[in-house]
Specification:
This protein is mainly alpha-helical and 266 residues long. The chain has a single domain (55-259), classed as Orthogonal Bundle (MetI-like fold), CATH 1.10.3720. It contains 11 helices and no strands. Helix 2 packs across helix 11 (236-259).
Length: 266
């Protein structure tokens, strides 16, 4: 039994090292005072300072932020409404099963399949309006398409955890539907809504495949820029940029985890 425990612990530590050592290496070289090579030449923050003075990267960061914020706001509203609609309103026959299957599709199917489908859809819509040309608007629509499912799943799990007892008690006290929604249901769902929004923002911030298929020449995001830059040469500025994106993602994940903890309903 002791040998098995040691083996399991060793495998766990090996897995953690395999996952996180490359990320630590990127952060390490982002503060290395050498432009090329793997030799440590001293600590410096000049690569981060240069990023702040790089107008091209600042413009790309703004594109990424606009894309993430707008798509997160819209997907959070739609995902929350979808979760409440599926969880609190009756659906005839096997409609709940069908809706549940549709809800899980964007989560299950590979990003490349969804990206190819979106390209075909935008190609058909382009004949109706120039709005659907590759660019920021198409990217926002694309991100909303897969973010809604993640938000709805998180909010729905919160909805299931709080149960129906409080809402039924409010109904017994003659609460109207609008009062029940705004004063009881949504406040109880707030931790799940915030967690779903954080997850959606993180997914949008880090997305590469769908953004690659729908981006235009003026709508490059940070993941696309990093990918293109790495294909030429890996510079300390790329390490610094990747480290910033990594830390922002980690902060959002920890924030999401905090809000997804189960809380006792008083």
């Amino acid at each position: 039994m002791k040998k098995i425990k040691l083996l399991v612990n060793a495998m766990a530590l090996g897995t953690m090292a395999f996952l996180y050592l490359p990320l630590m290496a990127v952060a390490f070289f982002s503060v290395n005072n050498t432009k090329y090579g793997l030799v440590w030449k001293g600590f410096t923050l000049k690569w981060y300072i240069q990023l702040l003075h790089n107008e091209a990267i600042l413009h790309i960061a703004l594109n990424t932020l606009i894309l993430a914020v707008v798509s997160t706001i819209i997907s959070t509203i739609l995902g929350t409404a979808l979760a409440i609609g599926m969880g609190r309103f009756p659906w005839p026959g096997k409609m709940n099963t069908i809706l549940d299957l549709i809800l899980h599709l964007p989560v299950i199917i590979p990003d490349i399949i969804l990206a190819a489908a979106l390209v075909i859809a935008f190609g058909l819509l382009r004949s109706l309006s120039s709005v659907f040309e590759p660019g920021l608007i198409c990217m926002i629509i694309s991100h909303i398409t897969f973010q809604v499912a993640f938000v709805a799943l998180v909010v729905r799990s919160r909805l299931i955890s709080i149960g129906k007892d409080i809402e039924e008690a409010a109904r017994d006290l003659y609460a109207s539907t609008s009062y029940l929604l705004w004063k009881i249901t949504l406040p109880l769902l707030l931790p799940g809504i915030i967690a779903g929004a954080m997850l959606a923002f993180t997914l949008s911030l880090d997305d590469f495949v769908i953004s690659f298929f729908t981006a235009g020449p003026d709508s490059v995001t940070l993941p696309l820029y990093i990918f293109a830059a790495v294909r030429r040469v890996v510079t300390p500025q790329i390490h610094a940029l990747a480290t910033i994106v990594l830390f922002v993602t980690v902060i959002l994940v920890f924030t999401m985890e905090r809000f997804t903890r189960k809380k006792d309903i008083q």
